[in-house]
Amino acid sequence: MKVSVISATENPVEVISRAAGTCYGKDNASRKRMEACYNSGHLSVFEHATVSFRIEGISRACMAQLTRHRHVSFCVESQRYNRYDLNGVDWYVAPPSFMKCTAGLKFFDHYMKEAADAYIEALADGEKPEDARYLLPEATKTNLVMTCNVRELFHILDMRMDKAAQWEIRGLAKAMHEACKGINKEWCEVMELRA
User: Fold this and answer.
1) Of 18, 33, 133, 160, which one is the catalytic site residue?
2) Annotated catalytic, 160?
3) What number is the average pLDDT over the span 84-106?
4) What is the value of pTM for the model shown?
């Protein structure tokens, strides 16, 4: 899995703080005001800062969980139009439970190979990618671009970094959190609210 930021509000603390200031008749930017809004639950002001991620190599199963967040915009790699070269060894995500023992990994790899062979054979027989994709498992890797505002990002991180979240989306949420902290100093300050 790889997560990178492709676009973000350059000065989120200022944008969030000025939005909040509008509510209170203030025109200056203040980290303290942003923090006070967060602590009091005045989260609508966080909707004015946004971030866009490029997410690569997550399973379709993880993508299905992520796209349940409705206040987010997504563009997902199309299995309908893309033909996949599944002869490589890195086209699917293997759950850690299968990776713990050689027998489990062999079992999992065996069924992934069968799915790949069926998909390749269907394409060779003239099936369109949009129909052949039905042979691919939920473990198939995909790529997407995701854009959200900070309020929704906090909601995603709260839900998906929780210990009860599924392992793959928990790893994705942690990677998104780290990617935001790496944008600039102001983003690091915003992410500290969520730490």
Assistant:
1) 160
2) yes
3) 86
4) 0.94
